[in-house]
Specification:
Blueprint (H helix, E strand, L loop, with lengths): L10 H10 L13 H14 L18 E5 L16 E5 L5 H5 L19 E3 L6 E3 L4 H14 L4 H16 L12 H12 L1
Antiparallel strand pairs: 1-2, 3-4
């Protein structure tokens, strides 16, 4: 998972809410405003997420390949359905991230806008699993619950990480700067290499 540094709410979205707030009673009403949703996905990908899903770290090349994800689910936190700080653009993976998370929620879920996921996660370089960084009760509970809610250890993701680790072992260190995907795994791998 990646830390997301939110920017100020973009002007186009503020203006949209000012103009349409009386007609929008829930997120489903936003379906009539596809262009705003598209612009939001694009803005977050470009300005805040470096074209990456903050959950699985996969590259999202085009805003149409991403979903607007409500960190706190819109059906459980109705007051946040239009709150820009509750939005991310996540990938459309069928087996993880937003599509798997849906409306699942737990207070132990790691919010990548408010918390740094690197404080909670590390990797098993053999299995490709994302694992709790510490046996500290709070860290372990939060990491395990977030992994469960997002299905971050789905076989496809573990295989992707294992293949990434194999690729890293064959590259020269100077080639690492050109790698865009799996940012936190790359940082972990480099830290281990320095030990």
């Amino acid at each position: 998972m990646l830390k997301v540094q939110k920017t100020l709410e973009p002007k186009f979205y503020k203006d949209f809410k000012t103009k349409h707030i009386s007609k929008i009673n829930n997120w489903d009403d936003m379906n009539d405003h596809y262009e705003v949703k598209q612009e939001l996905r694009e803005y977050m990908l470009l300005e805040e997420q470096n074209f990456k899903c903050p959950y699985c770290e996969s590259l999202i090349y085009d805003e149409s390949e991403g979903n607007i994800e409500h960190i706190r689910p819109k059906d459980k936190f109705k007051e946040l359905y239009l709150d820009y700080n509750n939005f991310l653009t996540s990938c459309r993976s069928a087996y993880s991230c937003d599509n798997f998370k849906g409306s699942k929620w737990d207070e132990n879920f790691i919010n990548p806008v408010l918390e740094n996921p690197r404080d909670y996660f590390t990797y098993d370089l053999y299995s490709g699993e994302i694992i709790p960084k510490s046996d500290d009760k709070m860290i372990k509970e939060k990491a395990e619950k977030t992994i469960e809610i997002l299905n971050l250890n789905h076989n496809n993701l573990k295989n992707k990480r294992r293949n990434f680790i194999k690729m890293l072992s064959k590259l020269k260190r100077e080639d690492f700067e050109f790698i865009e995907e799996q940012e936190s795994l790359l940082k972990y791998y480099l830290e281990l290499e320095l030990l």
